[in-house]
Specification:
Rossmann fold, 2 domains, alpha/beta, 63% helix, 434 Repressor (Amino-terminal Domain), 7% strand
Length: 296
Amino acid sequence: MGPSVFAASYVPPERMSDAEFLKRLGDRVREARAKRGMTRKILSRDSGVSERYLAQLETGQGNISILLLRQLAAALDMPIETLVHEHPDPSVDLAHAMELLRRLDADDLVEARQLLLQRFDTAAEKARRSHIALVGLRGAGKSTLGALLAQRLKVPFVELDKEIERASGVSLSVIFDLYGQAGFRRLERQCLQDLIARFPGFVLATGGSLVSEPATFELLLTNCFTVWLTASPAEHMGRVVAQGDMRPMASNREAMSDLQRILKVRNPLYSKADTRVDTAGRTVEESLALLVEAVE
């Protein structure tokens, strides 16, 4: 494979020190783990990387081979991610478009995405409004409010996690045990694609960590009108426990701090939804009224 088209337009950032680079890498691994709700033990099991090394990596003490790869990228005058990118190189036009988007701030990126949808996919935008997807952390009310909203709109109500279990024929816990996080994510994306193709309209309750997978979340944002259901951390935890699910508290004295950390790293992702409904301190009836107003 020849030099990547990324290299032609690549302007390297101000070079940080090795220590700063390893710290940033560790921070990203830790944040990615939090977005997915994975403990270090689970990540170790799924990746085959020892917990000890993961702990070192997350504290900025990564293996020297990481720095060697970085030196190669610097010598080639190209971003390090281009060297490890698994997909074929994009066309020159796509690479230049990506560089343009990379320079935009967060608000301009939202506007650019909306303009692209309006200009090149108006039919998809109309279909998107008929697929309503609820995102948010467990305990926000996605299942309860989603079922009521679907009844009101006279469309099917689907819980994505249950659809994954139905399609695979085994429970989520078995999926994770057999195939790990990566295997679950592949099933999640495939089931979402199948649901969008199968139903002309629905109300969908998604898993709380779906937003941490860029390709799957983009599939959702592109094909569904998304609503972020929110509540306070204490209400999230209380509602889950009230439903008889004690997993958040089992053998975990730091359950609340873990929940707050997950909320902190996922909030910027959840905020990409089309609209937001806050269920904090509200009854089911009050929350449903707000949700109906939001989607209509």
